[in-house]
Specification:
This protein is mainly α and 608 residues long. It contains 29 helices and 2 strands. It has a two-stranded antiparallel sheet with strand order 1-2. It is globular.
Length: 608
């Protein structure tokens, strides 16, 4: 028994691993392990019985946590958009734009995946939507099966790192940071990862063109009556929209100064990007709308279709992320507006019905309950683990690592990478992150940067063969038997599980490359955050002390109104009778303590 009491924390952690290995659900494994070791710890005298009395307050704190309200809101938004056909329209339109290029369909999948990630935040919805829509087209026109599978799975996982990501909400809650800061920090790394995916597809299209052929002419449906593709007007519209966005970004400080009525010298980069993007797309939408209403024929079918398909999701991105970045709304409020915006978009497309709404609400309830049960179990486990000084044991264990911060980060990322084979990002967030965050904070590591770094690493949990959830989602919709294509009439071979695994490995390496880039260049995250304002408490104390001294001097003299009243009553204001101060120090409270203004302030307040 003495051995158990002396090694209570490591035995408790090992007990949790045993529960998980036996195959019990994570939420119940956490709760059962916490309850068992809680009773055992009380019996052995490791901590008092009153420890379990903390549990009700912890559970009430979970229920009252407004940050976690964003989870059902963003989930509902994503599910309604996915079921309203937005992904299908986006893939069709963007595929027509990039189709004539080698690898164009793969590029379209990546770009649409990034846009779905910025509007839905749900990995399953993105992977399943693109798997159902784009995979048959890519197979129809000769794309390599591994490349097609890897592109779809990797693009779907962008929903985990690009705001509004559910994992960023959970990480913010576990790290004690604001969701807005996590969103700002993840903005640039998320789109940098999109750039790595694009570069990989371009490289394959150049060096292995047979893996990523271009669309044949008969597959390009958006053509003009004269047979032209209509790229000229699309390019001109894109250039005009980009020019407006660039001018707006360069003059953002002046716009803020005009709007706020006071000088604004700097604007965060993420805010510039979101607002400039909104301004540029709004101009493109006005031109397309004017062209459609007046029937001037200035834009081609392709340009008009792309504009009207892209504007609604981009407007929703601004409604959600723009209001959060601008400080107009909290992430929870932004999620609520996003869910309402998704409902309005679905209704405007004539695709909102009671069946769709019931399905979306039921799935949202299941996912939210899943998160809540895991959080309750994790709270019970962490409460007992902390009572047994478990964080101290973890800190001593990791403090022995060589290399300081770098050694700690390398070890943590390797551990997260290995655990991601068996646990998903929710489980990692609730089990591992609370143990690592205090140590990272003591080592001087910025917790927002640390959270984004872990989010990119946990993204690999979706891509790990053979347990990656994105691979499971894709496997559920990929053809497992030969079938006859309804367009070409040809027999299409199935996609094997090994081909899906093989296609995921290059993108898994790209995700780990992004982890290394973030460790090397932390400014990709921290430069997007609001600068900390350093307050000199001594200066504040000095200023308050001067104000007190001035008030004391004023108390010794009659006010202007009192002097006037005395003058009216007696004809002249009487001279006040003041006793001379015994010393300068007595005349000026705190003067003797000028070197310590805070102490002097306390003494002056006491005399008052």
């Amino acid at each position: 028994m003495e051995f158990i009491a002396a090694n209570f924390a490591p035995l408790m952690f090992g007990g949790l691993l045993c529960f998980l290995i036996l195959g019990f659900p994570v939420a119940f494994s956490l709760g059962a392990c916490g309850l068992f070791f809680g009773l055992l710890g009380i019996e052995l005298g490791v901590f008092p019985a009153s420890t379990l009395a903390w549990l009700p307050q912890r559970l009430i704190g979970i229920m009252a946590n407004e940050t976690l309200l964003a989870v059902p809101f963003f989930t509902l938004m994503g599910l309604i958009l996915e079921r309203s056909g937005m992904a299908e329209d986006l893939l069709d339109s963007v595929g027509q734009v990039f189709g004539p290029l080698r690898g164009g369909l793969a590029l379209a999948v990546i770009l649409v995946g990034a846009m779905l990630a910025a509007t839905t935040g749900v990995v399953a919805a993105s992977v399943i939507s693109m798997g159902l829509i784009s995979l048959p087209i890519m197979l129809r026109y000769g794309y390599d099966r591994s490349l097609a599978s890897g592109v779809i799975a990797a693009s779907g996982t962008l929903a985990q790192i690009i705001p509004p990501s559910l994992v960023l909400i959970v990480l913010a809650d576990q790290l004690g940071k604001s969701v807005g800061d996590m969103y700002k920090g993840a903005f640039v790394p998320g789109f940098a990862l999109v750039g790595l995916y694009v570069l990989w597809v371009i490289a394959l299209a150049i060096f292995k063109p047979k893996m990523a052929p271009a669309l044949p002419p008969e597959a390009r449906t958006l053509r003009e009556p004269n047979g032209s593709a209509g790229y000229t007007s699309l390019a001109l519209l894109a250039l005009l929209s980009t020019a407006v966005a660039v001018v707006l970004a360069q003059n953002m400080e002046a716009v803020h100064t005009w709007w706020q009525g006071e000088l604004v010298e700097s604007v965060p980069t993420d805010e510039k990007i979101v607002v400039a993007m909104c301004g540029g797309t709004f101009v493109a939408w006005l031109i397309a709308l004017a062209n459609r209403v007046t029937r001037l024929g200035l834009l081609s079918r392709l340009a008009e279709r792309v504009t009207f398909v892209l504007i609604p999701p981009l407007l929703l991105i601004f409604l959600v992320l723009g209001t959060i970045f601008l400080g107009v709304a909290t992430p929870t409020e932004g999620g609520a507006m996003g869910a309402m915006g998704a409902i309005v978009m679905a209704a405007s497309r004539g695709r909102l019905n009671m069946s769709l709404l019931k399905q979306a609400l039921a799935t949202t309830t299941r996912l939210s309950s899943f998160v809540m049960f895991i959080l309750i179990g994790a709270t019970f486990f962490s409460m007992v683990f902390q009572a047994a000084d478990g964080p101290v044991w973890v800190e001593h264990l990791l403090a022995q690592l060589p290399g300081g911060q770098v050694g700690f980060l390398v070890f943590v990322n390797i551990m997260i990478f290995v655990l991601a084979f068996f646990l998903d990002f929710f489980e990692l967030s609730f089990i591992v992150v609370p143990l690592l965050a205090p140590i990272a904070d003591k080592m001087g590591i910025d917790l927002v940067w640390f959270g984004v770094l872990l989010a990119v690493n946990m993204q690999t949990s979706f891509m790990h063969p053979p347990f990656g959830f994105a691979l499971f989602f894709l496997r559920s919709v990929a053809p497992d038997k030969p079938y006859v294509d309804h367009v070409t009439g040809k027999t299409i071979a199935p996609v094997t599980t090994m081909q899906i695994y093989k296609g995921a490995i290059p993108f898994l390496i790209l995700q780990l490359t992004m982890v290394a880039i973030l460790i090397t260049f932390p400014g990709l995250v921290t430069s997007q955050l609001d600068k900390k304002v350093d307050v000199d408490m001594n200066a504040v104390g000095t200023q308050m002390l001067e104000n007190l001294n001035q008030q004391d001097l004023n108390f010794g003299e009659p006010g202007a109104e009192g002097a006037e009243e005395n003058k009216d009553d007696a004809g002249a204001a009487p001279a006040p009778e003041l006793e001379p101060p015994a010393s300068d120090a007595a005349a000026t409270p705190g003067a003797a303590e000028a070197d310590d203004p805070v102490k002097a302030l306390e003494e002056a307040a006491g005399k008052r």
